[in-house]
Amino acid sequence: MLRLGGTAAAGAAVLGCGGGDDRRTVTVFSPMGEVKNQALARQVDRFMALRDDLRVEVMPVPWDQGHAKLLTMIAGGNPPDVITATGQWMAEFRAMGAIEDLTSWYAFWPHRDAFTRTALLRCESSTAIEEGRVYGLPLELTTRAMFYRRRWLDEQGLEPAATRAGWRALLEQITDRDRGRYGYALRGARGGFWTWWPILEEFSGTNEWFDGDQHCIINSPEHVEGLAYWNDLYRDGLAPADAVNWGYNELVQGFWSGICGCIEQDPEVVRTCLDHGMDESTLVTAPMPAGPRAHVASNDIWILSISREAKNPDGALAFYEWMMSPEQLIAYSKDASVLPTVNQGMDDPYFGQGFLRPFMDMATDTRLLQNWYPSYLPEMGEFIEVLVTEEQQKMLLGRQSPRETLDRLAGFLGRAQQRYVERHGPDTPRPPRQPLEP
Question: What's the pTM value of the predicted model, to 2 decimals?
Answer without folding.
Answer: 0.86
